[in-house]
Structure formats: C-alpha cells, structure tokens
Here is the input.
Amino acid sequence: MTFDPDFASPTDWANLYREAGLQVVPSFIPNENPKQWKRPITEWRSLQNELVPDFTFQRWYGENGEHIRRFNMGLITGSCSGNAFIVDLDTQKNMGAAAWWDEVSHLARKAGELDTVEQLTGGGGRQLLFRGPEGWTPPTLKTPIGVDIRGQGGFAVLPPSMHESGKRYRWVDGCAPWEIEIAEAPYWLCEKIDELAHQYGAGGIGAGAGVKTASPDHTHNAFGKIIDGREDYAARFVWGRIVDLWRSCPIPMPKDEEEKEFREAFNTYERLVKSRLVEPGVPNHALLEKEGRGITMFTQKWNHAIAQWDTKVAEHGLKEPPRKHEAHGTSPLTGPVEGKIKIDPETGEIFRELPTEGILEYLDIKQIYSLPDPNFLIDGLVINSGLGFVFGPPGCGKSFITISMALSISAHLDKWWGRGIKKGGPVVYISSEGVGDIKFRIKAWELQNGIKAEQLPFYLIRQTINFMLASDVERLVKTVAEIASKHGNPACVFVDTVSRVLPGADENLQKDMTLFIGACDAVREAFESTVIGVHHTSRNGNLRGSTVFDGAGDFLLQVDREDGSMVGAIMAKKIKAAQDGWTQYFELKKVPIGDIGAHESLVAVGVDQPDQEEKKSNKWPEKTVLNKILDSMREAWDVGKPWSPHPQSRKQGRYAHFHMGEFGVNAKTADQILDQWSMNGVLSLEVRDKNTKLQGYRVIGRID
Here is the structure.
C-alpha cells in the first residue's frame, strides 16, 4: 500500500483505515473537550457491530464532508472492525505493564508471532492492534497494572490525532498499517487476555457473569430482532406465556408437558432476539448463553413464574385476557414484519400483532420485476408513505418551505417548485411553536399563488404532543382518524419541530429516538401517509441527534441561508430511489397581507441559481487576494471574532465561507483553500477564548 503520512489529509487517513476494515470515526481534540477528549465526536454506540455505510462515511470524510479538516479521529474496536482489538501498554508509567508484556513475549512460539501494527500515543504509551481469531470475542477492560484491552465496543485514538500534551499519535516505524498487516492474535495471547479479564472482573470469556458487551441505545436491529432490553423482554414473555397456559387449564401441568411448553417458548424467544456478539459460525442461542441472555436465564425466569402458579399467576389469569403479542412476541414498528398497529395502554408499548398463520410471501425474479416502481408524493423528492426530515439552523426558513409544500399538496397543485406533485390530499400540520403568525404565512402563500386557502383540506394541530408517550400518540392517531373519516387519509403529516414533540427525551440516544421513529411509523402506516419532521442542525451543521434519523429517513433535506440574505438553498442529502446531492435555491419574499393591521409575512419561492454564485470562479484567486484573506482572518482573530469552518457560526458573523465569498471565492474552492492551509501550517483551528470556548482559525503562517 502506498501512503505518504507527511502529505495526507484527514480524508486520506480515514480512507486508509476504512480500507483496512476498521471503523474510523471523527473524535474531539483536547481543547474542545478537555476532560473527556478521548471520545468520538459523533454518537457511537450504534456503530459497534458493523462498518458504517458509505453514505455515513462520505458525510464525514467525503467531498465537502463535515470532518475533512479534523485530524483527530479514532477506532471503534470489536466486531465492527473485523474483531480488531488493541493491547494498550502504559509501560512508561507502570512497571507492571512492562512485566506483563515481557511475560507475553516469552510465550511466543515462533518468530514474528506478535509482529503487528503498533502506535505510540501522544502520552508515550504503546498500543498494539490485533484481530481476534474466529470464535473469540475480545473483552474491554482496564487493569491497575497499566494493561488495558480495547475489545468489543472499545475506542482508541489514532494517528495523526493531537494529544493533550501537544504531541501527535504516530505509528511506529515499520509497524504502520501501510507497512505491515494487522496480525491475528494467537490463541495463547487470547488466553492471557482472558486471565486478565477474570482477574480484574471484566467478565471475560469463561467468567461466570458471561461476556459483557456495551449496551446499544436502540432496542431492535434492522430485522426486527430484539438486541437490547432482552432480560426484561424475556421476563414479560415468560410471564405472558405461563398466564396463557393457566387460562387454558388451571391444573398444574405434568412435568413432561411443562418441558414441552418450555422448549416451544424458548424456541420462540430465541427467534425473536439477537445476540450483540458477532462470531461467524456460532449459533445465536450459543451467543445468547455466552452473554447471560440464553437458556439459563430463560430457565430461571420460567421456574420463578411456575412457582407462583397458584398465587400471582392465577390472580393475573383471572383478569382480562392479554393481547396476542404477550403470547406470541412483538415486533417494533420499525421492523419489517407485517401486522396490525396497536398501542398497549398498560405498558405504553407500540407494537404490531404478528401474523400467526400461513407462510411468508416469497417472490421469484419475474415477480420481483413486476413490482411497482417507487412512488413519489413530490417527484424525485418526497417518497409517498415515507418518512423524511427537513433540517437547518434556526431562522433559515425551513418552516416557510414546509408550509409552502404542505399547502401545495393540499391544493392538489400540479407542481411544487417545478417538481410534479404526484398525490394531493389532506394535510395535517403539527406545530406548537409560532402558531400565532401561521395565519399570516398561509395568507401570504395564498396571495403569492393566487389560490383561496380557506377551502383547502389543511389542518393544524397546535396542542403540545409528546411522541414518547403512547397515550399521546394514540390521541394523535385518533385525531388523524377523525380527519380521515371526513376528508380521506392525509397525504402528508408534518411535525414542526421534532424537538417540540420530544420533551425530556435525549435526541442523541438511539433508544429514545427509536421510540420517536416508531411513533411516526404508527401514523405513517395507519393512514399510508408521508410523515415529514422539521428538525434543527447540530453545532457541526449536520442533522441534530442520533444517527437513527439518518437511517430511518427516506429523504433528508438540509436548508441553509446566510443571515440577512433573502436567498437560501435546500440541499438533497439523501433521497431513496432518486438522485440526491443536488441543490434547490429559494427566496423569501415579503408579502403584504392587506388586513387592517397592515401585517406582512414571508413566503418561500423556488428560484434558479443566484447570479452571484455563477460569477464566482472555481479557480484559486491570485496570491495577493489570498494574502488579503489571511490579513482579514488575522484581524478577526485579534478582535476576538475568529473565522469558523462551522456553518452555525454565521449567526455570529464568523463563518469563513461567507467571508471568503466576499473575495469572490465559492464554497467548494473555499473548502480546498482552508484544507490546504490547515495541512501546510498556514492556519490552526484553536480556542480563542477559554471562558466561552470560542473557537476559530488563527493565522500562523503566510504564503510566499
């Protein structure tokens, strides 16, 4: 492999690691998060089992990616990185680490058995990268002797990241990933690591507690199988099954009959849950047992319930019969299985009743070819009966855009901003913020388009709704059903904004956001309607919150507009079954309402590419202009308003791309210039004010 670390950009480094099958993610730099800087900058629990898709990686490190100028990055170890793990030796601080590795080295049975990729940390420690052999899961543990193992769900900072000491992480000469292969750990080394796990209570393989894995925030995988909350699910599953058996016959079962029922129950449970361990060739039931979520746990819960046959089981059995899913298992709304949507009023669970008869449909190639083409609500943009998000910073105009879209759909217009509307119909708009002036926005759209809006099937729900509560979601479904009974199923339901329907929830937790997506799906699937969430951006300028949004969204539209400008842009970040990556410009026009109060409102109108953008050249400007840009950047740093690479800084007037545009430099060329200057020591991204954590570019060099 040819790789030159002296001239490599962050994208080059990230591609190097990804080509090696390693899960590389952007991470904090020390001055961004002084106390916990050795952490990924993105939510990472969901990234522990498999490599991120190309879409996500390109969003980070592709052309115009969010982190193409961020040199700090790290590795998530374990199954997502081909079972790679790190042996971390603090030999510079702890003699115990040196003694342990010396003992390990003497166990080598052949020359070069431990030769592998190795790095030196900025703090002077050694980290060796191995791959675990098939059938062995590396644990993650810390020990008091200075030997740490970064195994399943672990994280380690990688070169060329900067350490808090001011030194960079670097690969040992001759042991870099472009110079040597990552070695597979010999079994005797795995045994030594297991001994550490046993000795220091990390739950290594063979330990009584089973293998410990980091708990993901989501509850189900992409195939509808439960991977989190499995112990609680097993308890509810067993209890429901035994109560059903009592209802069928309250006389205690003979031992052989009970054994038969137990086996059938466990087989059903095992089909519905999935181990978080990834070991090719090892069956799911064995991996579940390894985690302490298998037949041993299931037996304990079964025996505990059977022991209460004549007491609590009988008491529960005399109550109203349970829903079908208590006996047959459930699947989340985000799972692919079919079934009728229901909300359990007791537990708050949103679920489908699983089909219990017949076999699954299967299609041959001829039948697959006969499937209908993807169906759009708005041609090439909004997928019919899909879920999508329109997102951007506050004040960018996203609500004006979605109201324009909603009214155009409800009016059965032929087109919206030049794109064909394939399906018009009633629209439900959920908004508890800014509803005081929504009548002015509607009136402005009416006057702009010459359409009487009073007769349109457009309906506003302005009460605060909590999408995390099943009772609120049930009320919403009933409300939409009331509208549908009079005017037909809504073509689209808008949620403006997402944060308003998630009071108290953590947008970065997949567990919480999976519930939100499930609530959206409850509405979407019950009425075969499209659901569009209006959401905010994070401080890095991307869609705020968990990666659940990115994965669940059929389309993602980012809205961007400079402060003070009436022209903005919609960027198609993701559109399933259609081309994405394009930009649609829009203009916010002031429209006098013509009422007695002389009110006016803005309305969003699609426009062609602004002339000023067309005039900007893709070529780098002359050297004199480049030096003028550097002078402006230096002056901005001196007065405490450093230019920033982050789009959200535009509200403070510090966005570097905006200022470079004043010199005739377009956004793409600005990215190239800033990237090159950062790599070649002309610029440094630093904290300007330690109290406010204000960060921006400081000029440390000059071009000759």
Observations:
- Residues 230-248 form the longest helix (19 residues).
- The mean pLDDT is 82.
- The radius of gyration is 29 Å.
- DSSP finds 20 helices and 26 strands in the chain.
